[in-house]
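Input/output pair, single chain:
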Amino acid sequence: MPLQQRTLGQTGLNVSCLGLGTVKFGRNQEVKYSREFTLPSDDEVAALLELANELGINLLDTAPAYGSSEQRLGRLLRNREDWIICTKVGEEFVTGKSFFDFSGEHTRKSIERSLLNLNTDYLDLVLIHSDGNDMAIINSTDCLAMLTELKEKGVIRAIGMSTKSIEGGLKAVDLTDVVMVTYNPSSTDDETVIDRALANNKGVLIKKALNSGNDCPDSLANNFDFVLNKAGVSSIIVGTIDLSHLEANVGHAIKALA
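Output:
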């Protein structure tokens, strides 16, 4: 059985129900994982991308805040048209620390840089990378206005927000194409946001479905089953730099939907 694809709300994009997160491709400082890790080599990243493609994954999640992730994808990704690339704006990671800038000017420059880094002339999906102040970003900055302008110009195919509050998630559902929220058996607060998105035919990406790798291996299958069978979920983003983990994750996703 192949990995299921789902329509991402009203975007016209079809995404694999499991997407590959790429934080670990470019950043191993100030990250919330249970174990330390070394950044993979170019050959290892290329092998991960090749296997992901073979297994039916077409969605890649990256961000400027993920260190060198965008640059490495731009250098190593083959057959751009086969992939749905999601990147972000708002958070930067420089000299080991994060900072945030949600101004329209910074947003525009960030998009221009992402296009160069990813070696592409369009971005499938761009999310606002929230610092936790979702409503302030939406109501008091021109970040969303700039993303909307770039979408109208055809530079971006769809826009959305990776949120950190229920209120922000609900607002993002109303104003954008896609929302990214946290959802797993021990964190269900954003279920309200997912339900709103389903009712409005908006795309939903799930972060921390496996609790950032902190849940025990025995619970992984249950997490996949719980999240992928929630109505309204388009895809879950799971990061790994281990080929066997990638293969196992795809197996869990397929089994959950069998």
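The chain has a mean pLDDT of 96. The chain has ten helices and twelve strands.
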